[in-house]
Fold this protein.
Amino acid sequence: MKNAILNERNFVTTKEFCEIFDHQISPTTVNVLIRKGKIPSAGLGRRNLIPVSFVREQLAKGAGYNE
């Protein structure tokens, strides 16, 4: 699933972000990091969409969130 999402789309939702990282981070924490500007996002209505390029960078770093 991880590769399918990353290859087919430009953005992922907060929930998908958590699934990609095997739920090692909660949606609440992701939303807090988005509000703090540590995770880039684009808003679409009430949804936060995280760029796939950022997800790939974090996967390459070993999921270091630079907190």
